[in-house]
């Protein structure tokens, strides 16, 4: 395959896209990558930056009729607001503890030296999280499944006239979309609650999304998920390091 053929295979589908859509996708990708980098450093700006990306993707995915992906980003928008509040409260609590515990403050200075300016305390998954994760996964798969089941009606201007329904219309893309949607939603909930293990879910879901988005013809978004996967692997290590430093501060 020549370079021209390769570039045409990767980006040829954009020839039929409006310039506005291409520009919006690029902006969303840039803000999305920035938000993941901020999350790896437990920087609270992850949420306002991420909101820009998810809001744009909600609009684009609705236009492209990728309803499962659109639902993910709509949920991201809601969870970003929740996470912003949760992280802000934790930051205030950490600062208060530093004020009354100079030893802990000294250990938290070590965290600042690792380029993590906001001193958000990270936590590990516990048994109380498991039932909520299971419920979230089941509800997500059921909801996205219903969306795809009624997709012919949605594509028919929400009319049942002439619309054929049935599970036999589902494709492997639909089933994969249901799986990644569940993984992403669980990951975002754990992230909002500052759980280290959310990075494991991101790694798995991001890796699956790379070929999925290439297949859907969204090359820039697929490349974004390549970057997301690499960042998530690195961030998982970073959060583990932060957790160990926090443990030293807690027992100081």
TrEMBL record:
It is a multi-pass membrane protein. InterPro entries: NMN_transpt_PnuC. It is found in: Cell membrane. One of its GO terms (cellular component) is plasma membrane. The chain crosses the membrane at residues 20-38, 45-64, 70-87, 130-150, 170-192, 199-216, 222-239. It holds the Pfam family NMN_transporter. Keywords: Cell membrane, Membrane, Transmembrane, Transmembrane helix, Transport. One of its GO terms (molecular function) is nicotinamide riboside transmembrane transporter activity. Signal peptide: none annotated. Belongs to the nicotinamide ribonucleoside (NR) uptake permease (TC 4.B.1) family. Required for nicotinamide riboside transport across the inner membrane. This is Nicotinamide riboside transporter PnuC. It comes from Psychrobacter cryohalolentis (strain ATCC BAA-1226 / DSM 17306 / VKM B-2378 / K5).
